[in-house]
Design goal:
This protein is mainly β and about 180 residues long. The protein has 1 helix and 8 strands, in the order H-E-E-E-E-E-E-E-E. Strands 1-2-3-4-5-6-7-8 form an 8-stranded antiparallel barrel. Strand 3 and strand 4 form a beta hairpin.
């Protein structure tokens, strides 16, 4: 599975680098750089997925508090009595942060792609099988600004892979909860 994931990650890294180069060229239109790092946790009913992510973009652009590219990677292992299941989930999204006067709280909205790789190994027989899927990914976060340069965010990602395409559920939907810090440089 690691070889399959590595190949997938190389393709994804090229895509993310391309998006990042566009982000880096945008500061001429913006006031400052938006950077955020986060930790994530996922399904907890027998499957544990833990990961990290980040956002990189620009602030005060095109009527938004921030426009950014978001990436996250999560991994997990399930060790039931006779099987071992490994999972990896990568997301690539574009997002915006917008303040709404009616709720007095900035919100972040993201949309993009997610990649899933999973491998199940059967202890008794030594057999293994793999699943991989690409699907849609959306996220929403609430932001609390402590200062003009520092904020915290808490939110959720929902990744859609179609039925029977992951080892998580027959719905093929994976929910991740995340929290992070935002720094405006």
């Amino acid at each position: 599975m690691k070889y399959v994931i590595s190949t997938s990650l190389k393709k994804s890294a090229i895509l993310f680098a391309s998006l990042l180069s566009v982000t880096i060229s945008l500061p001429t239109l913006a006031n400052s750089i938006h950077f955020s790092a986060e930790g994530k946790v996922g399904p907890t009913m027998g499957f544990d997925l833990v990961g990290y992510g980040g956002q990189l973009g620009v602030t005060d652009t095109l009527g938004f508090e921030a426009i950014y590219f978001s990436y996250s990677q999560s991994e997990g292992t399930l060790l039931p009595t006779l099987n071992r299941t490994d999972h990896e989930l990568n997301t690539y999204r574009i997002g915006v942060e917008k303040s709404f006067q009616s709720i007095q709280l900035p919100l972040q909205f993201e949309i993009g792609l997610a990649e899933y790789e999973g491998e199940r190994r059967y202890w008794a027989s030594g057999d293994h099988e793999q699943l991989s899927a690409t699907g849609a990914s959306i996220a929403i976060s609430a932001v609390h600004n402590f200062t003009e340069k520092f904020a915290l965010r808490v939110g959720a990602d929902l990744n859609f892979f179609g039925s029977d395409n992951t080892y998580y559920s027959t719905s093929g939907t994976v929910l991740m909860i995340g929290a992070g810090v935002i720094i405006r440089l």
